[in-house]
Amino acid sequence: MERKKAEVLVIGVINIQEPSGTYALLLGELNGNRQVPVIIGPAEANPITMQLKGVETPRPMTHDLFKSCLRTFNIQVSEVLIYRVEEGIFYSYVYLKHNHDVIAIDARTSDAILLALTFHAPIYMYDDILETQCMPYDEDEELDDYSTASESEEAESIEELEMALEKAIKDENYELASVLRDKIKKQK
Description:
Elements: E1 5-17, E2 22-29, E3 35-40, H1 42-53, H2 62-72, E4 75-86, E5 89-98, E6 101-108, H3 109-119, E7 123-126, H4 127-133, H5 158-170, H6 174-187
Parallel strand pairs: 4-7
Antiparallel strand pairs: 1-2, 1-7, 2-3, 4-5, 5-6
Helix pairs in contact: 1-3, 5-6
């Protein structure tokens, strides 16, 4: 039986454990509301965040070098597929296309996603993985459910926002955490 694929987008990268540097790469279903966190380290989080923000470095990073090599030989990243998860580790293929040939290369999910972002290629996840790994998500949940967070235009102190961010992370509401993190950055 053929497994169904769902396209996912990178919602963001969230620091979930400040001192140890553990991050969640948050993937969201393109035409749905399921979200999957993929745990990554700071070495993986930094280039993904830079790519998402369009930050250019003075010298090429590893993924830039890989992109240059592939483009030199007229090879494109056609898609990324997250095909398995085992004990919290996600496994991915990067599909490379040269002329009419397509080959799958096994890759760490963080590297595969970084290449997809670099080449503007779609990212897919098998639907059964998306279903079993998705976080609970309540569309009716509002920011006001967090005692110190609100969507009002009133200025909030950084301390209040940081407390709300900690609560959102503890409650595994990474979407809210991302919004709060951005508010904190704006105020700083």
